[in-house]
């Protein structure tokens, strides 16, 4: 029993978990689990998805989880009711699990649908729960507008206030949560961690010229268009400069067309979704990592690139600004500020000693407080406090 100081048994409910199609999807959920086990926290993982999304297979590298599919109405239209449908789908399984293994705590990832289902399970089975918030849209009102959005907001408020703890991935995310609940819930910040051995500086030198790497879903808020324009602006002065983009999304064809239009189509490589090992190798190969995202709760990829000893460019006002100290262990630029991004890239690409110093400081930042072991230690402490 966890509240007696021994092993703690936690049921993890998550819509995010690595799949064979996307090995990085939910890595921030799966990768700390081995470290949690070392800290005496045993997790049973239910990875959940609505029936309309089709079937997923767990990626081989992830800690074992069971994919459970449940009925829900498609898209944002179904989000307010998805937690109730999920609860109905799993309550029998959870009751049986609790009877055989004695669950001490439910850890839900995101308020909707998993937090809502955890709140209903808590009322039904008397189990305490905590909820993690992984993005700035803490009430799903950016994702869902109008009356449905207000419905999402009200449910999320109840989920947060009824939980033993709301775990936020950054102070920026905590601000968003508290803005909607006042002081009606207990919050903690636990930054995501990195595997410093997988994302190590290593020796994968670039064989050609300098490479700017970006990793992220190809959606407008990530700022890939801005980065392509900045790389194009530097093209005449840096003829060997190339850009690698890892990720997929609806923006890809438009971004490819933009690169062609700017005359750098042959310099920008769209590499699609890659394995964790391939991403780590790309980070070792690159000269600079940049993701000028204007809406980011934290961003695991920044931390991974820092762990690989690379100079990283992120945006001010986002979660990563709590980790990057401008000019000390990375660079911060204004969101949507193409000129500032271009200047930052130019400075880093032309100054090898500065790149080396920033990369070394970035790696030290990760090793000091942002490894998977640090993340698991913080989570284990919160879990134990939550069952007392």
Concise account of the structure shown:
The chain has 388 residues and is of the alpha/beta class. It has 13 helices and 13 strands.
How does this model look, in words?
With 388 residues, this protein is an alpha/beta fold. The protein folds into two domains: 2-192 and 371-387, 3-Layer(aba) Sandwich (Rossmann fold); 211-369, Glycogen Phosphorylase B (Rossmann fold, 3-Layer(aba) Sandwich), CATH 3.40.50.2000. Helix content is 43%, strand content 16%. The protein contains 13 helices and 13 strands. The chain has helices spanning 27-30, 33-38, 75-101, 111-125, 146-162, 171-181, 224-234, 252-261, 276-285, 300-307, 338-350, 352-369, 372-387, and strands spanning 8-14, 41-50, 66-70, 105-109, 129-133, 165-168, 187-189, 211-215, 242-246, 268-272, 288-290, 312-315, 331-333. The strands form two sheets. Strands 3-2-1-4-5-6-7 form a seven-stranded parallel sheet, with helices on both faces. It has a six-stranded parallel sheet with strand order 10-9-8-11-12-13, with helices on both faces. α3 (75-101) runs parallel beside α5, α4 packs across α5 and α7 (224-234) packs across α11 (338-350). It is globular.
């Amino acid at each position: 029993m966890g509240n007696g100081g021994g092993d703690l048994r936690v049921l993890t409910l998550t819509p995010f978990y690595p799949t064979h199609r996307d090995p990085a999807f939910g890595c921030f959920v799966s990768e700390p689990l081995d470290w949690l086990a070392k800290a005496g926290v045993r997790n049973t993982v239910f990875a959940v998805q609505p029936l309309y999304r089709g079937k997923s297979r767990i990626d081989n590298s992830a800690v074992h989880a069971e994919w459970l599919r449940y009925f829900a109405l498609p898209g944002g239209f179904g989000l307010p009711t998805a937690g109730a449908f999920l609860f109905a789908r799993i309550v029998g399984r959870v009751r049986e699990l609790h009877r055989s293994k004695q669950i001490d705590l439910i850890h839900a990832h995101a308020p909707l649908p998993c937090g809502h289902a955890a709140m209903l399970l808590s009322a039904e089975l008397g189990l305490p729960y905590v909820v993690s918030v992984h993005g700035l849209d803490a009430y799903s009102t950016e994702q869902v507008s109008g009356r449905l959005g207000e419905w999402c907001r009200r449910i999320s408020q109840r989920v947060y206030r009824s939980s033993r703890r709301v775990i936020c991935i950054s102070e920026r995310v905590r601000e968003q949560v508290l803005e909607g609940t006042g002081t009606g819930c207990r919050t903690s910040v636990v930054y995501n961690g990195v595997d410093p051995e997988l994302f190590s500086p290593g020796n994968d030198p670039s064989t050609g010229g300098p490479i700017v790497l970006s990793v992220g879903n190809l959606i407008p808020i990530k700022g890939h268009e801005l980065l392509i324009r900045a790389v194009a602006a530097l093209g005449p002065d840096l003829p060997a400069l190339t850009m690698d983009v890892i990720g997929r999304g609806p923006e890809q064809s438009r971004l490819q067309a933009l690169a062609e239009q700017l005359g750098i189509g042959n310099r920008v490589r769209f590499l699609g979704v890659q394995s964790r090992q391939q991403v780590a190798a790309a980070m070792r190969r690159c000269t600079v990592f940049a993701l000028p995202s204007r809406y980011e709760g934290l961003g695991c990829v920044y931390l991974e690139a820092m762990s690989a000893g690379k100079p990283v460019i992120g945006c001010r006002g986002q979660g990563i600004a709590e980790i990057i100290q401008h000019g000390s262990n990375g660079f911060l630029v204004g969101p949507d500020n193409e000129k500032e991004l271009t200047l930052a890239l130019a400075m880093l690409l032309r100054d090898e000693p500065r790149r080396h110093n920033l990369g070394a400081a970035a790696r030290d930042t990760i090793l000091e407080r942002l490894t998977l072991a640090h993340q698991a230690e913080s989570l284990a402490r919160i879990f134990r406090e939550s069952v007392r």
